[in-house]
Design brief:
heterodimer, A: 199 residues, alpha+beta, Arc Repressor Mutant, subunit A, 2 domains, 4-stranded antiparallel sheet, 6 helices, B: 229 residues, Jelly Rolls, 12 strands, 42% helix, 22% strand
Chain lengths: 199, 229
């Protein structure tokens, strides 16, 4: 395995590029994104310490189906494809670990497809707040910018800003630069669960 | 079904004859009626399904009971079992759109084969990553393409995989109701009606109760490629 360091905002690999292997996040935060021809970005998932990515091309082709970018200073360890295949032949249980990663990712993508296809934008933003909140503090906090929240929830920054202003007015969240504090978790959860979704 | 029959499934062709025999012995033959569920989202880990005939929809249902169709596997394709190693609930449902026959490998036998047979392990991982990439493409379409492009993309993809050439274009079975076309494109039934009528008025396709004939494939493919967001 080879260790590599990336600055915040630095690209790790691009969609369509030949894959190098399987990547493990040693520290930091990575996001996997799809980009449209007009430059808009949809985040597929965000991965922190202990998670791995770049696994998709190992079996069905050698091309990365999405782009990976470091969101903050990040250390990665990369295991080349050939080495991985060799190790997995010797240790079949390793395949179950990889399958577990695939299973999680597939469930995440099925969920995201449902969200993009059937949920309202407000529901998608609320779901992102609940998904990416750090629940360690007295009040859960989300350390994302409006732009990042927009990319995660498949909308644009202006819509996120408007929605957060409404939540702030109802004292459900308090928004500060790069930090959104959830003041009333119960209401946010019930808002997301009970609202009738519109496309 | 014997090993030769299983070898007709493209994804399984790489397996040695001995492994195909082993697999054939362990799969159950099943028949499903129209509307019958093969497995359900939120249920236990799904089995591996090799579809022999008929059509099935893979879909996800929201808490508000809105449906997003994720895929329409063709006979000869395999699906299911993706969360085998997680022991987490099944991430999507599968329901027969028309009478279907399938070979079904229960999760516990699937797990044993993955652990014991390296050739099968590689084939199964390949199947799962192919499904993953298909879902990535779906997310891309839902995020960046408008409804017209998404509906065009559904027709183009079906024409490419299952269409039959005629003197006027490419013909496909209608297969889905207007509501189901809405559920595949993430929109409402009325929008599907209006969009299909527009395709018809512009001479891109014609619609009957049973079939859809695509008369201007290249133009429809161009619409399908457009990204508006």
């Amino acid at each position: 395995m080879v260790k590599q360091f990336y600055q915040a905002g630095q690209l790790i690999f691009l969609e369509g590029e030949r894959a190098r292997g399987i990547w493990f996040v040693v520290s930091g935060l990575v996001r996997i994104v799809k980009q449209s021809s007009t430059g808009r970005i949809q985040t597929l998932c965000a991965l922190n310490r202990g998670r791995c990515f770049g696994t998709c091309p190992l079996f069905s082709s050698e091309i990365n189906p999405a782009t990976a970018e470091a969101l903050e200073p990040t250390t990665l360890a990369v295991l080349p494809q050939t080495a991985f295949k060799e190790v997995s032949r010797q240790r079949p249980a390793l395949a179950l670990i990889l399958l577990s990663v695939y299973g999680q990712r597939l469930a995440q993508l099925a969920h995201l497809s449902e969200a993009l296809g059937t949920w309202s934008t407000a529901d998608r933003i609320n779901n992102c707040l609940l998904t990416y909140a750090d629940y360690g503090a007295a009040n859960p906090v989300v350390r994302l910018t409006h732009e990042e929240l927009a990319r995660l929830s498949g909308t644009v920054r202006e819509v996120v800003t408007r929605h957060l202003a409404q939540l702030e007015k109802s004292a459900i969240v308090q928004a500060q630069p790069r930090l959104i504090e959830i003041l009333n978790l119960g209401v946010l959860q019930s808002t997301w669960l009970c609202k009738a979704a519109t496309p | 079904m014997d090993a030769n029959g299983l070898a007709q499934f493209a994804a399984l062709q790489k397996l040695p004859a001995a492994v195909l025999c082993q697999l054939a012995d362990q799969m159950d033959r099943r028949r499903f009626q129209t509307g019958e569920s093969l497995f359900q989202q939120g249920g236990e880990v799904s089995p591996l399904v090799a579809l022999q005939s008929g059509r099935v929809k893979l879909f996800r249902q929201s808490r508000q009971e809105r449906v997003q169709i994720l895929a329409l596997p063709l006979p000869g394709e395999c699906f299911g079992g993706e969360t085998l190693a997680n022991d987490t609930p099944c991430p999507y449902s599968a329901t027969a759109l028309q009478p279907a026959r399938a070979l079904v490998l229960p999760p516990e036998k699937l797990r044993q084969l993955v652990l014991a047979v390296p050739e099968f392990q590689e084939v199964f991982l390949n199947l799962v990553t192919t499904r993953l990439k298909q879902f990535v493409t779906l997310v891309h379409d839902l995020a960046f393409r408008d409804v017209t492009a998404r509906l065009a993309a559904v027709l183009v993809a079906r024409a490419q995989s299952e269409g039959q050439r005629t003197n006027h274009g490419i013909i496909i079975e209608r297969l889905l109701s207007q509501q189901e076309y809405a559920e595949i494109a993430g929109t409402a039934r009325e929008v599907v009606y209006r969009t299909f009528r527009k395709f018809e008025q512009e001479g891109l396709a014609s619609f009957t109760r049973e079939t859809i004939e695509i008369t201007a494939f290249e133009t429809l493919a161009e619409i399908a490629r457009q990204e508006t967001h």
